[in-house]
What does this fold into?
Amino acid sequence: MTGWPNHPGDPMPLSSPTRPETARKRFELRHLRWYICALLFFASTVNYIDRQTLSVLKPHLQQLMHWSETDYGWIVFAFQLAYAIMMVVSGKVVDRLGTRLGFALAMVWWSVAAIAHALCRNVFQFEIARFFLGAGEAANFPASIKSVAEWFPNRERALATGIFNSGTNLGAVVGTTMVAWLTLRWNWQVAFLLTGGLGFMWLALWLLFYRRPGQHSCLSRQELDYIQEGQEEVAEDSQPPIAWRKILDYRQTWGFIVAKFLTDPIWWFYIFWLPSYLEQARGFSLKQIGIFAWIPPFAASFGSMAGGWLPGFCMKRGWPVSRARKFVMALTAFSMPAGIAAVLAHSVWAALGLISVAMAAHQGWSANVFTLASDMFPKKDVASVVGVGGAAGAVGGMIIAPVAGYVLQWFHTYVPLFIIAGVMHPLALGLVHLLIPKVTLVDPAARASRSQN
It folds into this structure.
């Protein structure tokens, strides 16, 4: 990462003649914050490989175990139920335990749950395994957003979020190809065992390398100053965290909740049903799914990074945070109807291309919605706010999972589902603007003072 472009205030090279002779004699890594971002990227990749495994295997297991579409819908529902419950809990746990320990415990939990899928033999057992997987995976985004808030100044947070969030797309890409190959080479149990074991590789790196900026022995003084530059002006150390029940008193929280509730289910739909759509509506085999189904998630990785980069580009040219953030959210939201055109397209390649546009747009949207939490709340409360919003998104996913199952079971068409997927982001954008006319940092102390008066 040493080739990362310099920014004003970036740390001086270690060989700089202006570096004081009294500098601490210890190993320092230049641009250490981007190495931390790489760890978060790796975690998101593992997260999505583990959740993608079942969706890739769905056509195979559906024939092997005689699942109906509604059976699969309820298996997905079990994941979303646990995800919704634990999103709220995990955010508070990460805020209490700290990012390093909280994230490590979550990785162990969900990796064991992912491996346990290999032991399942019926729908109920898969529902149990998915429930525990969802409970563990819920901590990924609260912990990652909190890490970004700790390690990055405001103007770089959307970019860092876009980069680590693109790991979800790599996970979908790698997961699709890897799971199909492992299943064809050995069997579906091996696919769950080997993909579930990836989390323990990440765990070793995380425990070895991650610390908060002020505690990291490899962080230079100059980079620490740069990280802290432009971060929230509220004196956090003098304030307790916002009480759980008080988080919902803020319009900013409700704007975040609405954005997640309406749009997260669309991503779940694409992730959990895309392989099945290609098999049922476009005639793909498991081998063809492994060869081609990675294309839309791969495109989504570029959407995530571009959506994270563009607000910072606008801010460097004088745009305020609120204007830059909402401009990119609007650009991505009004690209989502590409999914409607996809399901109506006659060519499978046109459909794949249009689905790629929609998935890329969602990830660009998601990078900015996640960053809203760190734009508006102090670092010590970010994981809790992300947890509440993530829970709302998972509740939306709980709704769409059985709905998709019943629509496919009764009507045998994906058209209504793709129409829903195309209109929710523009609707969410309008509601977010009503609830959050301007993106600004909340001041809990000032709010408490006003309420006492």
User: Anything to note?
Assistant: The chain has 19 helices and no strands. Residues 32-221+244-442 form a domain with the Growth Hormone; Chain: A; fold (CATH 1.20.1250.20). The first helix runs from residue 32 to 65.
